[in-house]
Amino acid sequence: MHKVTSLEIAELAGVSQSTVSRALRKSPLVNPETRRRIQRIAREHNYKVDRSASNLRSQHSRTIAMLVHEESGMDSDINPFFVSMLASITRAAAARNYDVLLSFQQLSKNWIADYENSNKAEGIVLLGYGGYTDYIRKIELLDNAHVLTWGPVIDGQPGHFVGCDNRRGGYMATRYLLKLGHTRIAFLGDISDDCPEFQGRYSGYCNALSRFGLRADPALQASSHSSTHSGHLAVRELLSRKEDFSAVFCSSDLTALGAIHALQENGLKVPGDISVVGFDDIPSATHMSPALTTVRQNTAKAGEVMVDILLRLIRGEYVQSQLIEPELLVRESCGSD
Amino acid sequence: MHKVTSLEIAELAGVSQSTVSRALRKSPLVNPETRRRIQRIAREHNYKVDRSASNLRSQHSRTIAMLVHEESGMDSDINPFFVSMLASITRAAAARNYDVLLSFQQLSKNWIADYENSNKAEGIVLLGYGGYTDYIRKIELLDNAHVLTWGPVIDGQPGHFVGCDNRRGGYMATRYLLKLGHTRIAFLGDISDDCPEFQGRYSGYCNALSRFGLRADPALQASSHSSTHSGHLAVRELLSRKEDFSAVFCSSDLTALGAIHALQENGLKVPGDISVVGFDDIPSATHMSPALTTVRQNTAKAGEVMVDILLRLIRGEYVQSQLIEPELLVRESCGSD
DNA sequence: CTGAAAGCGCTTACAG
DNA sequence: CTGAAAGCGCTTACAG
């Protein structure tokens, strides 16, 4: 199958190659009638502008790279939450006429050289790097690159971030449990400096408690990262402490899934004996029984915001990190409302 | 920030630009010592070969497009199964030094023109188009394009397919239930010609029954496509028929999730009263309670096979459609083994 | 093993 | 509104 070029379209249309190029880029310089004729002929011959040539000449690839963190050596599943982000970013990019390169990456790679210096992509979105203090340090070197990370938004941090308002989300979840009458509310999540996003959720939790005249009890906090296994272990630890509690706020849905499993294994009913709230709203949250009450991160909005900010970074505009408002989704895991 | 070119690397290394190009492509023509020197200088200056220029000159993009079907106008979630395929295809492509463009597409688009004629990608993988008879008809026109679809593998069909051995999977699931002593086994899934993959699973189900001297009872089959909602409705229909059954084989995990919910709502315990088997092994399958016994489609293997076959198509080699062997994963939804 | 040179298919200043 | 021409940064046949 012979490759059709703009020169051939030009011959067929009886114009110069430059005019074909202009017409297909919808330049206002060409006569509208000429443009329509050229467009028709191009369509009839299935002609598409060669992207390599176009990119080379114009020095723009109209492509962004979406890099998803992959645990080195692990075959583990990606957090379903990131899948949702990935889809919404891809859709938002398509709406702006940008292509998206997808890749799973380890922490150590030199992304800027790999994607920007090679002209494969004009900018990079990072997903799943929120908890990596290592990486955040490294990003300082990237100041004039076009990298946008989904993660914690912290005052004065280097680099560019978009993230959920974790403090607000933690506050909403905890306030909801307090209003249901719970006073002994456990918190499951790693609140060390390694997990600034979970710290934010915890800080919202503490905030809500104090608004109700209560204080966070360290005996009701157990560390957990974002996995069912880890949530399972955290509940076991909590139960072994023989502390009294009637509700659990989990810093991620995967943690909540594991926690519910562990509670049920120990003969505790959810929500009968213990109420549970999660964070993320992954697809599993609606499929399980009881359906999980959780704090939804608005991925559709987040994807649009991220693409918008990344394209502005690429254009060299000044941009600021931005927070996405979360939303409480009440389902079954805290009893009927 | 100035863009480094191969010409500058050449000057720094005291060689010609051609030699730089050869060295970085690891041509055996260049002196190993010269090559190492050039590589070092390139690394020090963060030089990367410009992909647009390289692509244009060599007429190869080393990129494949991964197109995921998106219901027109719908905001619905992608089947989690495809997410797993997507990750494994991306990894397999990366291992072969190919980049992956991700896009969500509607049925009507002219993919060949959009991706191949524009030189954006050398080949296309389609996910989620398995059930579209419309599309399958259309693919006949694509004979000399490089398109590989994840879907039903049927003798004599046009186009190139990789898919799960659905008949074998249906057989395994049903045989397992029969061995547990069930004789009244319901089948949930659309077995019309629109869903050749479900037809395959159903045919395996019938096969297993007849091996055990039983016959498929039409009263125990209810239509359902791949969604929780649809599984929920199918169980309601089944129950309204007042037929006796002790097990349900669902043609997808999403169907199984909805089915279990509906059974529980009607006071039936899973697996106490009814055993359930799914198909796909989506992440939710392990998270729910009871954990779902299901037929796993091996996505890691499938991704590798698909990339391998697509690259062979691209090279113009003769390829055949291929079946991926499924595997039964026994968990909790049929009782303890 | 190395270099000089052509050319991939466009976009875009320049001239009219 | 249109055309002739330069050139984006490489790869690769050709010559040595």
Any chance you could write out the topology, listing elements then pairs?
The structure is a homodimer of 337-residue chains.
Chain A: H1 6-13, H2 17-24, H3 32-44, H4 51-58, E1 63-69, H5 80-95, E2 99-105, H6 111-117, E3 123-127, H7 133-138, E4 147-150, E5 160-164, H8 166-179, E6 185-188, H9 196-211, E7 221-222, H10 228-240, E8 247-250, H11 253-265, E9 275-280, H12 284-287, E10 293-296, H13 299-314, E11 322-324, E12 327-329
Parallel strand pairs in A: 1-2, 1-3, 3-4, 4-5, 5-11, 6-7, 6-8, 8-9, 9-10
Antiparallel strand pairs in A: 10-12
Helix pairs in contact in A: 1-2, 1-3, 2-3, 5-13, 8-9, 10-11
The first copy, chain A, binds a DNA duplex (16 and 16 nucleotides) through residues 3, 5-7, 15-19, 21-22, 25, 29-31, 34, 49-59, 119.
In CATH, what is the homologous superfamily of the largest domain in chain A? Response regulator
Give the number of helices of chain A: 13
- Gyration radius from CA atoms of chain A, angstroms: 25 Å
Average pLDDT of chain A works out at 90
Percent strand of chain A equals 15-25%
Q: Give the total of beta strands of chain A.
A: 12
CATH architecture of the largest domain in chain A: 3-Layer(aba) Sandwich
Shape of chain A: elongated
Query: What is the string of SSEs of chain A from the N terminus onward?
Result: HHHHEHEHEHEEHEHEHEHEHEHEE
Would you tell me which CATH topology of the largest domain in chain A applies?
Answer: Rossmann fold
Global structural class of chain A: alpha/beta
The oligomeric state of the chains shown is: homodimer
